[in-house]
Amino acid sequence: MEVSTEHLLVQARERFALQDYYGAAHLLEELLGRGRNFADVHHLLGLCHSLLGHHDLALNSFEAALAINPQYLEAQVHLGLVLNELGRTAEAEDAFQRAAADRTTEPVEGFSAPIAASLANQHAALGEAYAEAGALTSAIEQFRRAVQLGPTFHDLRYRLGRLLLEGGQALAARDELERVVEGNPNFVDALAALGLSRYLSGDAAGAKETWAACLAKRPDHARVSAYMAMATRI
Q1: What is the three-class DSSP state of 86?
Q2: Domain locations along the chain
Q3: pTM of the entire structure?
Q4: CA distance readout (Å), 139 to 46, 135, 194
Q5: Which region among 98-107, 117-126, 163-172, 194-203 has the lowest average model confidence (pLDDT)?
């Protein structure tokens, strides 16, 4: 059975918290291989590499995170720390200055960008807690607030879309998932979920087209193959 990307990320964070940096890195690399090309995944992978002493790999990961989200404060700071460890002090100072400059970026919902990002992740964590407790409506509310504070956080919007699907809100889920896929066309699991939301909202032709695009990117996606078989039989 294919493990969901959400579960893999939870496992990776658990491995990291237990200081199993090799195990966490393995799971994070699997996530990236699935098309989850998100700043938070690259950043956590960079932390794993840094703590393992793999400084060049850490730099690559932090730079990848910043390429996706140039205002990622933690990635900028950790990039500077690794550069400093390598003796590249001028580059490190530049990274630290950029991190300081990030505090003056345009506010989100009245908060500075770093504070808004932190609050978004806290709302998402609370949303997950509600979801695990079976309080789906409250979970959706928390993730809606999370994406208001982090409108470019595709992983949080994807999770919102999945929760909306679970709650029978196919049209609302489709709207959220379309935004995710527009922002990151290589997010294969989001593409699969978008196909399902289209199917459940009555657009069978659109669903098949979406799933075909998904299989073109990842032919071994078992869940999408099952969706296509279901749609073909009906």
Answers
A1: coil
A2: 5-104, 115-233
A3: 0.68
A4: 29, 6, 20
A5: 98-107
CB count within 10 Å of CB 100 equals 12
Secondary structure letter of residue 105 according to DSSP: S
Domain 5-104 has CATH 1.25.40.10: yes
Mean pLDDT to the nearest integer, 73-85? 85
Phi, psi dihedral angles at 131 (to 5 degrees) = -60, -40
Q: Which long-range contacts (CB under 8 A, 24 or more apart) does 2-9 make?
A: 2/221, 2/222, 2/223, 4/189, 5/31, 5/34, 5/36, 5/189, 6/159, 6/162, 8/34, 9/36, 9/41, 9/155
User: How far is Cα 160 from Cα 140, in angstroms, rounded to an integer?
Assistant: 6
115-233 maps to CATH 1.10.760.10: no
